[in-house]
Every structure is written in structure tokens, then in C-alpha cells.
Write a structure and sequence with these properties.
Layout (H helix, E strand, L loop, with lengths): L2 H15 L4 H39 L1
Length: about 60
């Protein structure tokens, strides 16, 4: 996870803590969690693409 994304997730957590009502807090928390999940999925895809690229390079040599 990049430092920039980590900071944004932290900022969202702080914003949620300052939310004026429970519904707003829940919405902000949902956005924060979805952002973290999407980042993890993107990282997994990047690893798969790197592995596939490595395999393709080894078969063309």
C-alpha cells in the first residue's frame, strides 16, 4: 500500500470519527473499507500480471 493511500485511509478514519451522525459515520467507514479492499485486489492482480509476464519471458527465451 502506498504512503499516499495509507494517508487517505487515515484521513477517512479521522473524518468518520468526526461524523455528525451514525449514518454519516457508517457511510464513511464503508467507503474506507471498500477502498482498502479494492487496493488489496489491485495488488493481487499486479502480482498475477507480474508472474504471467515472467512466465511469458521465460518461454520466449
Amino acid at each position: 500500500m502506498s504512503n499516499e493511500l495509507r494517508k487517505k485511509l487515515h484521513d477517512l478514519a479521522e473524518l468518520g470519527d468526526k461524523a455528525p451522525d451514525p449514518q454519516t459515520k457508517a457511510l464513511i467507514e464503508a467507503i474506507r473499507l471498500q477502498t482498502a479492499v479494492l487496493n488489496e485486489r489491485l495488488f493481487a492482480i499486479e502480482l498475477q500480471v507480474a508472474a504471467l509476464s515472467k512466465r511469458l519471458e521465460s518461454t520466449t527465451d
